[in-house]
Amino acid sequence: MALGKNYEGQNCYLARALELVGERWTLLVIRDAFYGVRRYGDFLGHLDIPRAVLADRLATLVEAGILERHRYQDSPPRDEYLLTERGTELWSVIFPLMRWGERHFSTGESLRTFRHAACGTELDPVSRCPACGLTDVAPGDIEADTGPGVPAQPRQDPVSVALRRRPHRLLQPLL
Amino acid sequence: MALGKNYEGQNCYLARALELVGERWTLLVIRDAFYGVRRYGDFLGHLDIPRAVLADRLATLVEAGILERHRYQDSPPRDEYLLTERGTELWSVIFPLMRWGERHFSTGESLRTFRHAACGTELDPVSRCPACGLTDVAPGDIEADTGPGVPAQPRQDPVSVALRRRPHRLLQPLL
DNA sequence: GCCTCTCGGTTCGGTGAATGAACCGAGGCT
DNA sequence: AGCCTCGGTTCATTCACCGAACCGAGAGGC
């Protein structure tokens, strides 16, 4: 999105936040990071994003302190991208937006469910646990699972396959 | 943003939501609507958005049922854009994102405060009232006010001036 | 040594969207 | 009539996105 110079007089941090997080693809990359996607190639295969755009977004997010680049093997040298604390806080934005989209533009049944791992209760629209009365379930305590609405021809990329296979804790490595 | 055809396999309503709400400028238009901005010219003056882009975004938002176009005078014929219920629900996305931006990219003091109108308590980062224990303060019950951090040379457009003047209930007409 | 494969990018030509300035038409006001 | 405001549309330029091709480091086979 990058409002560039124009945002400056905006007198509101929403504009500044959107400079970082409001660009095309960026929130989908961060969503995948919550799902446990960590490697360039996996983001690429799951998102159908142009390679150059993905490289640019990852670099921007690292620079902004939302993702962290971490070497996980030396030979050959490979890095993974992990959400920082700052990035993890974006769950309170991503989850409500996802649920809003589902409420208003869903054609069938839920594609994905999110439960409080401690008690198994489905989260409410702003990521609270109705059973525990927890008003802020942290992403690390959430278990995501395939919902009842299964698409006719599901994607076959490794990330999509892994996401369908079994319940999975957010932020834990998916592959 | 408009992911176009690419979102289809995404298996996630976040992509669909971003098609509508993730385009450049769109969330800022909706934020202004929460502030009580209702007319084309006021959005234009406050956002420094190209006229054509604003016209396009307003039309898209009306078509998506997020804004509603309402004739408020007949001579000359003038319409205003009001948030629908569907649009109002986006507060749970916009507010956390705004506060996230403020926490991490603020250079000085808060530019704007949001209080629960019933008790005057400042809202927490996800729009709850710590005093009342209310876990979902509706936008209509929120009073916005200028914060202690005043910019050196504040904007002089009518909307910016009105926003500085006094505390103001969200969704109520600003001008 | 050499071929080939994977991974994580970069490069590059083509396209579509954003930008900003100019223009336009309906409808007051004097 | 002449001028103003409001809410757009038009249009040429600029910029970001796109997708396909290319590239370099390193591993593994032979």
3D structure, described in words:
The structure is a homodimer of 175-residue chains. By secondary structure, chain A is α+β, with helices and mostly antiparallel strands. The first copy, chain A, is 38% helix and 15% strand. The first copy, chain A, has helices spanning 13-21, 26-35, 40-47, 51-63, 85-88, 91-105, 158-165, and strands at residues 67-74, 77-83, 112-116, 142-146, 168-169. In chain A, strand 1 (67-74) and strand 2 form a beta hairpin. The relative contact order of chain A is 0.14. The model of chain A has no long low-confidence stretch (mean pLDDT 91). The interface between A and B is large, with 56 and 55 residues. The first copy, chain A, binds a DNA duplex (30 and 30 nucleotides) through helix 3, helix 4 and strand 2.
